[in-house]
Amino acid sequence: MFGFYSRILVAYDGSELSDKALDLALKLAEQDSRIEVHAVTVWDDRYVQTFGYYDIVSVEELAESRQRSTEELFGKIKGKLDAVPNKTATIALEGNPAKMLAEYAKDNDCDLIVMGSRGLSSMKELFLGSVSHNVVQQAHCPVLIAK
């Protein structure tokens, strides 16, 4: 039994590393059917604003596109989530990914965050930072990084 975790947040963006993180989170959840798994994706509008995407499409078109993308993203993992007896949820948020993941975990009493590592070089990470690095710094609970 893996009794000291009751609610696991898994950061999911459709990448190979997020698939590995999801698989790891579900393996942990298999230890006890009472463990909840929350698959969370975060849409980051900073890049939309920076590159002037609003000049190309309307806010409504962007929202519709994001809704379709979210449904497609979570459609990829529906089978995996349905295959476990645990309570699961899929959540899409908007904002700074690291901040939103840490806040969601805290606000929803998640006691473990599982996410993939982007594998940035130390020089790139120094300048760009990474979502996983920032989540580790901001989270109130343990963060497990899947590689």
From TrEMBL:
<dbReference type="InterPro" id="IPR006015">
    <property type="entry name" value="Universal_stress_UspA"/>
</dbReference>
<protein>
    <submittedName>
        <fullName>Universal stress protein</fullName>
    </submittedName>
</protein>
<dbReference type="InterPro" id="IPR014729">
    <property type="entry name" value="Rossmann-like_a/b/a_fold"/>
</dbReference>
<dbReference type="InterPro" id="IPR006016">
    <property type="entry name" value="UspA"/>
</dbReference>
<feature type="domain" description="UspA">
    <location>
        <begin position="5"/>
        <end position="147"/>
    </location>
</feature>
<comment type="similarity">
    <text>Belongs to the universal stress protein A family.</text>
</comment>
<dbReference type="Pfam" id="PF00582">
    <property type="entry name" value="Usp"/>
</dbReference>
